[in-house]
Amino acid sequence: MIKVLGICKNSIFIKGIQPYLATHNIEIIGTCNNSTHGQSEYLKLNPDIVLRDASWAGNFYTVSETDLIVQLKEVNENASIVAMTNIKEPELINCLKTKNLIGYVYQTLNDPSKEIFNCTKFLYKGCDQFP
């Protein structure tokens, strides 16, 4: 079973893909919708992969998208972190790659559960995923 921590401003989305992922041996072991709790949840749950929003604009997140990657990599330099988005953001993804992001899911919204499943399996095998 692959253990995933979801850090997403829309926890309804994470909960919505949970049943599909569970049928493929991927378990969402925790979610948090505030980036401030990302590091503490990571330490508490020890996930195989962190699935997180790509862009954290506005006042909703108190820890920036790049700062959270740095924090998680300080705890575990091998942390597997994947960003997901439904809009193309190549500049942001290139910036996140410089902070050791290992994967990116561009959700076409045709079948986001399948896209996330494919990316998660690929990352779990130790490969980067940048479509």
Given the helix and strand composition, which structural class is it?
Answer: alpha/beta
Enter the CATH topology name: Rossmann fold
Total of domains: 1
How many individual β-strands?
5
Mind telling me the CATH superfamily name? Answer: Response regulator
State the end-to-end CA separation. 24 Å
> SSE order, as H and E?
EHEHEHEHEH
Mean pLDDT: 78
What is the approximate shape? globular
Using the 3D structure, state the CATH architecture.
3-Layer(aba) Sandwich
How does this model look, in words?
The protein is α/β, with parallel strands linked by helices. It has one domain: 3-Layer(aba) Sandwich (Rossmann fold). It has a 5-stranded parallel β-sheet, sandwiched between helices. Strand 1, helix 1 and strand 2 form a beta-alpha-beta unit.
